[in-house]
């Protein structure tokens, strides 16, 4: 009571404070119709509870649908696979109709245009404009409804399973002191543990929509050696995880499955943003998230799966040869310009940047606005990780390499000699010419494309491919790039 009285009187005396000067240039007449509130934060509370007793009843959970996994998946095993696979290659249908999908003119029924903003068709019911899918009263069926749906959700389930293991793995192998040294507290570790538990829910949801052939948990081979590298890897895994799903959601036959998957991928995108914050990067340096084809997500994911149980449901997607970014901007550096060639924890496309650089070149424990990259809600890097015009050097692998669970998938490409670098970010696909400098090596310069004025297209961790042509594609037909992809990698832009 005493503290409340004191607060009320200090509040009254602060009401006379002068109105602040305009803080957003060009935005005038912004006076709030309320009195200026005090910004004093003292006195602080010193005692906590017992609290007010408020009206409530006794209640309990009556229905808790079972999950397909517990919070942690029990004894684990990690590292590369060294055996011989009992089967090889992607799942194939008994018949494949054509070698590639030919372009068609726009769908003849897609002609709706409403210049007047009034309803053009009879309304099926009050307050119910004509149109939409699944709006005519049919009972929802929350199941995959085609091979396309099955393979897409099965891929997403492989992704949820690795995330469940991955988030727990970093918490298990690094000490509390390791996390503190990377600026992450016990509350942050609890947050990462909670993200792992979210994956058990996502895995359950997808399993339920797939049926008994749903893929199960595998064993994994991770690239990180430090907490920073763990966080960087998480930032990349969730990046291709969300982008892989955004790429196919709108193409699913089952609108019901799309609805539920949208509601889980919204969580994945929050995880991605949170890992960026833990890495001291600007949380969402773009206006739109990007979508990529399923075969891209599978190409990024597969190298980190060492083996899966016998009878695991296999996938139909393609594994492309890896594209390596030699001078991948290192987010642990004060100045990413100083990144040395191959400054990475390993040589797979999604591998994190090397965090073991000299302390006086690292931004992790700096306390300097514009330069620090310790965990924060937001960071304003004075020196960007990358910039338009930056030379980017690549090497790439030949096709025919064994990758993925039990080394039982094989990288392949149908593209001719690579001539372009395709940059996929936000709503845009931008090509730059590839200058080939040797056997499977070359360079290009980062493009300066924008989505809409003021929004540079290439920001956040982006996707890069070598292609044999500069085919014009947009987010809804991006998959038609696949026959032209020679190698596929990731780029730490922003
Ligand atoms: C993959 O390896 C696991 C563990 O050794 C084994 O149980 C499984 O049968 C293998 N699967 C294939 C497709 O080789
Ligand atoms: C209801 O709409 C679906 C498409 O969402 C369509 O397939 C189905 O035939 C419609 N049912 C009726 C009774 O009109
Ligand atoms: C990317 O976003 C950050 C944060 O908003 C910004 O500072 C930076 O200039 C952007 N990068 C490019 C290439 O515009
Ligand atoms: C794998 O599938 C075969 C055929 O359906 C079955 O006989 C066998 O028991 C299964 N093995 C495992 C480990 O589930
Ligand atoms: C990084 O390199 C670019 C291109 O040479 C240059 O414009 C920029 O000033 C450099 N950044 C810093 C912080 O020196
Ligand atoms: C990564 O792989 C590329 C191409 O296979 C090779 O040129 C490069 O030396 C490798 N880098 C490291 C650090 O292993
Ligand atoms: C960081 O610097 C600011 C301003 O100099 C200071 O107020 C703050 O206490 C410092 N924080 C740490 C963790 O050193
Ligand atoms: C943020 O960074 C930009 C340069 O990228 C700089 O112009 C601006 O002053 C910085 N703002 C703060 C608050 O540090
Ligand atoms: C890229 O490779 C070329 C040689 O082909 C080299 O001269 C250049 O310094 C490299 N650029 C970077 C940014 O590493
Ligand atoms: C980027 O995407 C936007 C939105 O689809 C489009 O208007 C713009 O032309 C694209 N820009 C480039 C350079 O492709
Ligand atoms: C992809 O879609 C765009 C329209 O958004 C179209 O102009 C382009 O021709 C399409 N590309 C192919 C290969 O069909």
TrEMBL record:
Signal peptide (residue range): 1-26
Annotated region described as Disordered, given as residue ranges: 65-89, 331-359
Keywords (A to Z) from UniProt: Signal
Cited Pfam families: Ferritin_2 (PF13668)
Compositional bias (Polar residues): 331-341, 350-359
Coiled-coil segments: none
PANTHER family per record: PROTEIN RDS1
Annotated protein name in UniProt: Stress response protein Rds1
């Amino acid at each position: 009571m005493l503290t409340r009285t004191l607060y009320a009187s200090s509040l009254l005396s602060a009401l006379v404070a002068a109105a602040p000067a305009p803080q957003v240039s060009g935005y005038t007449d912004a006076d709030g119709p309320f009195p200026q509130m005090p910004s004093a934060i003292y006195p602080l509370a010193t005692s906590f509870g017992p609290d007010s007793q408020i009206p409530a009843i006794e209640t309990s959970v009556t229905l808790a649908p079972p999950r397909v996994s517990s919070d942690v998946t029990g004894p684990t095993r990690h590292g590369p696979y060294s055996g011989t696979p009992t089967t090889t290659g992607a799942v194939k249908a008994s018949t494949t109709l054509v070698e590639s999908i030919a372009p068609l003119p726009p769908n003849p029924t897609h002609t709706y245009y409403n210049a007047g903003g009034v309803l053009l068709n009879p309304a099926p019911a009050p307050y119910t404009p004509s149109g939409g899918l699944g709006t005519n009263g049919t009972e929802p069926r929350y199941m995959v409804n085609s091979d396309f749906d099955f393979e897409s959700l099965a891929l997403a389930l492989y992704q949820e399973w690795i995330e469940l293991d991955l988030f727990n793995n970093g918490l298990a192998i690094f000490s509390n002191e390791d996390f503190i040294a990377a600026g992450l507290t016990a509350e942050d570790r609890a947050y990462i543990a909670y993200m792992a538990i979210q994956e058990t829910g996502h895995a359950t949801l997808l399993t339920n929509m797939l049926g008994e052939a749903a893929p199960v948990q595998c064993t994994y081979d991770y690239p990180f050696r430090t907490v920073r590298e763990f966080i960087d890897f998480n930032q990349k895994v969730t990046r291709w995880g969300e982008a892989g799903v955004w790429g196919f959601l709108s193409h699913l036959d089952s609108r019901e499955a799309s609805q539920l998957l949208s509601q889980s991928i919204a969580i994945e995108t929050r995880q991605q943003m949170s890992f960026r914050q833990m890495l001291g990067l600007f949380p969402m340096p773009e206006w739109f998230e990007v979508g990529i084809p399923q075969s891209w997500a599978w190409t990024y994911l597969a190298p980190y799966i060492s083996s899966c149980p016998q009878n695991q449901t296999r996938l139909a997607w393609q594994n492309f040869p890896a594209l390596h970014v030699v001078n991948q901007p290192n987010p642990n550096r004060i100045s990413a310009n100083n990144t040395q060639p191959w400054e990475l924890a390993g040589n797979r496309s999604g591998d994190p940047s090397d965090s073991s650089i000299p302390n006086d070149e690292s931004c992790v424990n700096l306390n300097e606005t514009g330069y620090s990259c310790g965990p924060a809600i937001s960071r304003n890097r004075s020196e960007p990780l990358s910039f338009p015009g930056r030379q980017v050097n690549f090497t790439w692998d030949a096709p025919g390499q064994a990758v993925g669970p039990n080394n039982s998938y094989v990288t392949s490409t149908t593209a001719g000699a690579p001539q372009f670098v395709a940059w996929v970010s936000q709503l845009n696909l931008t090509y730059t010419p590839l200058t080939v400098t040797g056997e499977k090596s070359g360079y290009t310069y980062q493009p300066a494309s924008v989505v809409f004025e003021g929004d540079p297209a290439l920001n956040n961790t982006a996707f890069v491919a070598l292609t044999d042509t500069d085919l014009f594609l947009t987010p809804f037909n991006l998959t038609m790039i696949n026959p032209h992809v020679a190698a596929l990698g990731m780029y730490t832009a922003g």
